[in-house]
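hey so i finally got around to running the thing on that chain from the lab meeting. sorry it took forever, my laptop kept dying and i had to restart like 3 times. anyway pasting the input first so we r on the same page abt which one it is
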Amino acid sequence: MEKRFKKLLFLIASLTIFSFLLVACNNSEKTEGKKEGDKQVVDVPESENAVENYGLGDQFKAKNELTFTMSFSDHPNYPYKKDWLLIEEIKKRTNVNLDMTIIPMSDYSQKRSLLISSGDAPYIIPKTYPGEETPFVASGTILPISDYVDLMPNYKDKVEKWNIEPFLEGLRHDDGKYYVLPGLHEDVWPDYTLAIRTDIVEELGFEMPTTWDELEEILVAMKQAYPDSTPFSDRWTFSSTLNVAATSFGTSAGWGLGSALKFDKEKDEFYFGPASDGYKQMLTYFHGLVEKGLLDKESVTQEDDQAVQKFVNGKSFVIGTNSQTIVDYRKDMNEILGEGNFSIKKIIVPGGPVGQVMGGSKLENGIMISAKAKDDPNFEALLQFIDWLWYSDEGQEFTKWGVEGVTYEKGVDGKRVLAEDVNYVGLNPQGTKALNADFGFSGGNFAYGGTTDLLHSMFSEEEIEFQEAMHETKELILPDPPIKYDEMELEQSTLLSTPLKDFVNTATYEFILGDRDLAKWNDYVKDLKNMGMDDYVDLANKVYKK
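ok and heres what got predicted. didnt touch it at all, straight out
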């Protein structure tokens, strides 16, 4: 009896040890590392080609020549050339060859998804906007890059120094990790606003508008002085203007609609923005402009070229713009109206019912890394390469401006000036070679993010004035807290939100154009409820409070 009891104890002990080892093994595979306190530490095999003791500001250069695969979004205005100086210099400075998968910009999102899903994705996947990584998280095909940022000192330094963490929170998934390395800006960078004919504003005796109501007064005066015109004819299907206006009405719309959820700090809960009073106020304002003949009805349907032609030919006086398009407008108007016969300017985004505020982010599109990269013996070197090229001060200046003495010069004051024969965004109109098309620099796959000084270095004085005025005038609204759905919750949320947002987009234009009566707002809200609005909001709040 005693022997059988001892055998039973031995069997139980053996099974317990085996179970413990099995769980430990599984956990090790899942986390790929260990924990020190509350912090996840990931084990990365040392690469003989990595830089020893690589730290902040160090130059990365592989000990032996390496090749890393990378996808490339090919812009039709500056298509990829394998003999670009950019590619040559990357090899010279880092000892890394880039094996490019060239994808037309128009097909980039779709082809990128196919490559990732099929397991054929390159290691480095740039030009990824936050949120575009979500479909690949559950499958494990892309890397939870937040586990590895301790090996990226330049990236970490900028995150800490520029207070990026509140913005990174929105990238984290339900596991607390993020899967895209975003481009980082030192400051929020507002770009889109309205361009206005300042010569006509002055002719009519007005100052530049600071609120939406003041803009309406100017539009009324423009219509009276030029009855054959429609003062405001917009581009980008009016989505840019809705986006920049929405913040000052306390909501989100157009390009910035996002999830359509807004956060109420006092109640500590989310609500459906397009059903709010602020959204109704915004639509009422723009419908009023249409009703008075101040806003072109075609703004929501016309092609960009149609809107631009109306503006540059003097048929309209206000249009959506950014730092690049206003340069294009001015160039066309010089040819059509004659230099000196007009003046245009970006206006500070007008304030609204909630005051002089602006939204925005310090993040830009960034990089996904294929999960299979972590099994490469040179994974550590890959992380160092990305950290230096995309996140070091030296790497960011290089990918933006090129090679000192070839594409640009730098004065004793540190100011950068394009070389005599090089042009970019009208900075040197006499230049016969383009910095992006002929040399590969300042392209969207490499050059984004950086210090405000670097960002401003390619801005005209006019654009710097706009940026400074926005920051001096506006209070920054920080992003809403993230809602960390798990895979099932995300699927449910998407099923609920897709038809709701489609309906909102259609109804928004109908309200603005007068095809849907604002007096029947309650019917619109009732339609949203019937489509599952409350379920969508309840799910979001349940996940948020979880």
